[in-house]
Design brief:
By secondary structure, this protein is mostly helical. It has helices spanning 3-32, 38-56, 58-65, 70-90, 96-103, 106-116, 124-141, 150-170, 177-195, 205-231, 234-237, 243-256, 262-289.
Length: 294
Amino acid sequence: MEEGKRNILVAIGLVTAGGFLFAVMNAIVKALLARYPVLMLLWARTFFHVLFVGLVIPAAVAGALRTREPGIQLLRSVLLGSSTLLNFSALMYLPLGDVAAITFLSPILVAAIAALVLRERVSAVRWLAIGTGFLGALLIVRPTGAGIGPGAFLALGCAAAYATYQISTRMVREAEPLVSLLFSGLAGAVLFTLLLPWGWRTPTPVDLALMAATGVLGAIGHLMIILALRRGEASRVSPFNYLQLVWAMGASYLAFGDVPAPATLLGALIIVGSGLWLYRLDVAELARRAPGRS
């Protein structure tokens, strides 16, 4: 097998595995929310993320100390912390699969925010794909009143915060992406540690191990995505992020007995379809800009 194809297959495997780890992490969080305040789980997710990266990848710490972009890195960290806060809060109200489906609006929101904030030119076809994804979200939250509630709004807020996080990541010029991996959890680790006395409940040893696992799983998941994007083009690899929906709905059913409603499944399919449509438009645009094309 030629090197290029092997790299793409490895990249797809990394993205798929990373999505699986995120789904497992969210399942652990949802189970622990029955016994612990959300603030304590936010602390565990970010604190153990930073601790794990700092111990396993010392170069990330050295790079963070030398960074020339502390402002944008801290902004990214705050945005990811906000996204995590909204995600964990949404899990108190909704099944894993519903939260995952709504938060997968983020690639669609990235395209919209890039157009409105970064002034990137967006074609009518791209706006149509964005609108289609929004209709998929409406199916899941069911604005007739059947599905509207705190969980839906929190999940939508998570998608918006994560989309803004991705936009800010585009602005980072760090040569070493592992520095960004460390910074991702830094603001949350500091803030939630300071707030921890107001949300502390002494955990059992098993629960503390599960809390630590959320930070480690999240860090490894993000690392896998970084490694995948080093090996394969984003346009070829990113669509496999949508397998996380499958993992989330499967974990929700196996761990909590949640069966997704038909409207949720249809809405999820529409969101996935619109996201893939946007990726195909990106691929076509890159092909038109390739050297040798007029």
